[in-house]
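Our platform keeps sequence and structure together, in a single record for each protein. Such a record has a labelled line for the sequence and another for the backbone structure tokens. Nothing more is needed to write down the fold, since each code stands for a local backbone conformation. For reference, a complete record is included directly beneath this paragraph:
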Amino acid sequence: MKIGVPKEIKIKENRVGLVPGGVLQLVHDGHQVYVEKKAGIGVGIKDEEYAKVGATILSSAEEVFKVSEMIVKVKEPQPSEIAMLRAHHIVYTYLHLAADLQLTTGLMKSGSTCVAYETIQTLDGALPLLVPMSEVAGRMSTQIGAHYLQLDQGGKGILLGGVPGVRRAKVCVIGCGIAGTNAIKMAMGMGADVTAIDLSTKRLAELDDLFDNRITTLFSNMGNIETAIVNSDLVIGAVLIPGAKAPKLVTKEMIGKMSPGSVIVDIAVDQGGCIETCRPTTHENPTFLVDGVIHYCVANMPGAVARTSTYALTNVTLKYARLIAKNGIEGAARLDPALKLGINIYKGDLVYEQIARDLELPYRPLAF
């Protein structure tokens, strides 16, 4: 198969879809890999490193799309990239379609087949391609929140861990999956007073054991959420429903009751956000204020630590890229049910039911 790796063009997105080790493996498997010039520059990978392991370096994205059958990316195709997609293309990347009608309809019109990293799901319910970026985003959310709590950043002027004789900052984490748990780990490591909120009593019990009863765990309901966030200095939203829009668990009214200079970080913003007042921002303009509360809602948070994120991501994406390249999308899906769940759009048809429901678009189940 002919596999293309274009340079990411989303604002401040420096990650890359394949590292040289992945290219080497695919070339060894008998495939041709085309990499756009300077695709890896943001993570310190030179064109020569790709060429050395067998990649062909092309000077533009247009050339990459033109010669490739499968496009391996990190973030969803931008408008100029959608315009280059054709019916024979397989797009393999993060998509997060449930919160973006325009992106979804654009990809459908292209007639291409689109495989979303975030909906590849194993039989036990795990999301293996979402795990590494959830780990990164969760850990980043705490350090970002600590940064914006500084007075010079518009925050309250509170140190997350306090000092002897002075109270610690109160951190509330809503949603305790991979991202939320990593946010808690960082907050605990920095000495904060942490409250964790989740719908699963089993997960809350696991967190009690994991953190040796040093955090407060609360069942997720509106009363507990409101009480916790009103008294928090930093609120981290980390709610995930695979392939679906995140539910709005924190209302504008609740935000209005928080003290000025508090900070919100919504990790779920790429799925629409779990906090009503959130809207996607970029690394160039990451924050905005609502009722005096700082909101950080960057939709590609891991892009800020691109080197760590790229290697963590490509460790898990290569397996399925190889499977698709060897067997085609239909053959790969038959061999691996987890990969089949990753197919969101097949030859222009929306084939992921939850996304169709959220966006009120026609749904057509896969016939294989």
About this structure: The longest helix spans residues 306-335.
